């Protein structure tokens, strides 16, 4: 059989890895919804969900069950195919990012060296951008197919917001790429782990700030949650959705949060690097497990900051949002890029 | 057939089918979505040719940005199939004939051109499409056209701002 002559072991390895990472992300997202409610409760000085199971730990399953059991309503006047495609696209785009994130170094199992990254492509971070720009379609198609004025307005807002902040995000990223000289996330993390190098946050504090604000906007999190501003748009682009299709939209937001936290951790905070520890002195498997732990810790900290911001800061007005994006973020990112480039030239002495 | 060939034929079939669906769909929003599928298939071809950078830039720029603007316009104008006026049968016939002639010219051009003869595509082996080589070529051999095109983009941006600005 020459038809299918390729490394089956590699295929199985990758499939297992994909399954673990996708279900792991969904599991974390499940408990992120719980954490959101608990953090909100702490910040507002109330107990939060505490009835389902010990400390309310079964709450996300109760929520999920409720969403599944609700009646599924598809409006008469909507475009049925696109109405169903919308939440699916949102979820797919959210999950696709995880393919290029290096979750840790490699483990050695069954005499194989297994990289804990689904695909180390040499355009890694651009792939993330490509997927993020696909995420807009989930919102736009869902909002338009609902055939509801509020949904359409929210979808247009969401899409223009995402496009506006993608620009500043890309410009902030260019400075990081100048430092590391590679687009592969694994190489960027490796660069930060190398001896004598610090994490990129040391070299790029302004760049990180810009990237973080843009990540908030891309995830539609407060203060940038204009697409679901309920006091002007009722409920936003998913107003006509019910049951698990609504659940997919809400869930995709949490998956997006996890993925953008992971990307930020890799770009600016050393990815799976443990501070003040030389991983090469450890056995590879131990180092890999500790690395996963380190990356997850960084992700959890970022998610907490996302939530902290959500329950502290009120929402922007739409013109404020656009002014911030185009008149503050983009000039700042450009200046950051120029300064970084000049400093690199000065240091290398060309 | 190797995996590459299977992928090539699959992507080609996908591209042609989606392109036909772009034309056949009555609903303009469906047309735009099928056009995005065409871009995905073409990006797949780029990846087969080992031009990863081109592939992803094609997706980001065309599928991610330009098509979103198309969708914006179509959604805001709310074009529906009812609003599409029926064209006369002679119009359709004339379109088919002229389109067919154009296709024939293109095919004969590709078959006879010296540049295309006795050349095979580098499947997965060429490396000019990788970002490092592409960047070096753009900033050394093609630096003048590259910079001129950037000035062109700048003038287009300024023009858009001037037109969009209120009095």
Automatic annotation (TrEMBL), chain A:
UniProt-listed InterPro entries: NADH_UbQ_OxRdtase_su1/FPO (IPR001694), NADH_UbQ_OxRdtase_su1_CS (IPR018086)
UniProt keywords, alphabetically: Cell membrane, Membrane, NAD, Quinone, Translocase, Transmembrane, Transmembrane helix, Ubiquinone
A GO term from the CC aspect: plasma membrane
One GO term of the biological process aspect: aerobic respiration
EC number: 7.1.1.-
Topology in membrane: Multi-pass membrane protein
Transmembrane segments: 15-34, 81-103, 123-146, 167-189, 201-219, 248-270, 282-309, 329-346
EC category name: translocase
Keyword field contains Membrane: yes
Pfam families linked to this entry: NADHdh (PF00146)
Function summary: NDH-1 shuttles electrons from NADH, via FMN and iron-sulfur (Fe-S) centers, to quinones in the respiratory chain. The immediate electron acceptor for the enzyme in this species is believed to be ubiquinone. Couples the redox reaction to proton translocation (for every two electrons transferred, four hydrogen ions are translocated across the cytoplasmic membrane), and thus conserves the redox energy in a proton gradient. This subunit may bind ubiquinone.
Family: Belongs to the complex I subunit 1 family.
Quaternary structure and partners: NDH-1 is composed of 14 different subunits. Subunits NuoA, H, J, K, L, M, N constitute the membrane sector of the complex.
Annotated protein name in UniProt: NADH-quinone oxidoreductase subunit H
The organism's taxonomic lineage, starting at the top: Bacteria, Pseudomonadati, Bacteroidota, Chitinophagia, Chitinophagales
UniProtKB/TrEMBL annotation, chain B:
Alphabetized UniProt keyword annotations: Cell membrane, Membrane, NAD, Quinone, Transmembrane, Transmembrane helix
Enzyme class: translocase
Subcellular location: Cell membrane
Gene3D superfamilies: NADH-ubiquinone/plastoquinone oxidoreductase chain 6, subunit NuoJ
InterPro entries listed in its UniProt record: NADH_UbQ/plastoQ_OxRdtase_su6 (IPR001457), Nuo/plastoQ_OxRdtase_6_NuoJ (IPR042106)
UniProt cross-references to PANTHER family, sorted A to Z: NADH-UBIQUINONE OXIDOREDUCTASE CHAIN 6
Its job: NDH-1 shuttles electrons from NADH, via FMN and iron-sulfur (Fe-S) centers, to quinones in the respiratory chain. Couples the redox reaction to proton translocation (for every two electrons transferred, four hydrogen ions are translocated across the cytoplasmic membrane), and thus conserves the redox energy in a proton gradient.
Protein name: NADH-quinone oxidoreductase subunit J
Organism annotation: Sediminibacterium goheungense
């Amino acid at each position: 059989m020459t038809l299918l002559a390729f490394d089956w072991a590699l295929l199985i390895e990758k499939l297992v890895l994909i399954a673990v990472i996708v279900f792991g992300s969904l599991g974390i997202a499940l408990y992120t919804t719980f954490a959101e409610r608990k953090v909100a409760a702490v910040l507002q000085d109330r107990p939060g969900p505490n009835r389902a199971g010990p400390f309310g730990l079964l709450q996300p399953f109760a929520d999920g069950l409720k969403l599944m059991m609700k009646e599924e309503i598809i409006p008469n006047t909507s475009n049925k195919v696109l109405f169903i495609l919308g939440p699916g696209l949102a979820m797919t785009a959210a999950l696709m990012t995880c393919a290029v994130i290096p979750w840790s170094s490699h483990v050695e199992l069954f005499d194989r060296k297994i990289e804990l990254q689904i695909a180390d492509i040499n355009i890694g971070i651009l792939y993330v951008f490509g997927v993020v720009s696909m995420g807009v379609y989930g919102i736009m198609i869902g909002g338009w197919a609902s055939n509801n004025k509020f949904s359409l307005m929210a979808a247009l807002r969401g899409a223009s917001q995402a496009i506006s902040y993608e620009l500043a995000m890309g410009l902030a990223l260019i400075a990081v790429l100048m430092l590391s000289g590679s687009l592969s996330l694994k190489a960027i993390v490796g660069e930060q782990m190398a001896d004598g190098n610090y994490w990129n946050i040391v070299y790029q504090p302004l760049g990180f700030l810009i990237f973080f604000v843009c990540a908030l906007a891309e995830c539609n999190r407060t203060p940038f949650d204009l697409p679901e501003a309920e006091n002007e748009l009722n409920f936003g682009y998913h107003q006509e959705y019910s049951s698990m299709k609504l659940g997919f939209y809400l869930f995709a937001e949490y998956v997006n949060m996890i993925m953008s936290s992971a990307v930020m951790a890799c770009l600016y905070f050393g990815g799976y690097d443990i501070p003040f520890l030389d991983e090469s002195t450890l056995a590879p498997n131990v180092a890999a497990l500790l690395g996963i732990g380190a990356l997850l810790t960084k992700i959890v900290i970022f998610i907490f900051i996302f939530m902290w911001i959500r329950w502290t800061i009120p929402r922007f007005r739409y013109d404020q949002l656009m002014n911030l994006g185009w008149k503050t973020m983009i000039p700042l990112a450009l200046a950051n890029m120029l300064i970084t480039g000049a400093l690199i030239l000065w240091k290398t002495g060309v | 057939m190797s995996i590459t060939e299977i992928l090539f034929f699959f992507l080609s079939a996908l591209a042609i089918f989606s392109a036909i669906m772009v034309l056949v769909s009555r609903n303009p929003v469906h047309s735009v979505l099928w056009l995005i599928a065409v871009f995905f298939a073409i990006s797949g071809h780029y990846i087969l040719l080992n031009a990863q950078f081109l592939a992803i830039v094609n997706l980001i720029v065309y599928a991610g940005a330009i098509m979103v603007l198309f969708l914006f316009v179509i959604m805001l104008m709310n074009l529906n199939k009812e609003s599409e006026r029926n064209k006369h049968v002679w119009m359709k016939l004339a379109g088919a004939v002229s389109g067919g002639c154009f296709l024939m010219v293109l095919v004969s051009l590709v078959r006879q051109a010296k540049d295309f003869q006795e050349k095979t595509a580098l499947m997965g082996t060429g490396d000019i499409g990788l970002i490092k080589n592409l960047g070096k070529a753009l900033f050394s051999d093609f630096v003048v056209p590259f910079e001129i095109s950037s000035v062109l983009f700048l003038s287009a941006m300024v023009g858009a701002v001037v037109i969009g600005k209120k009095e």
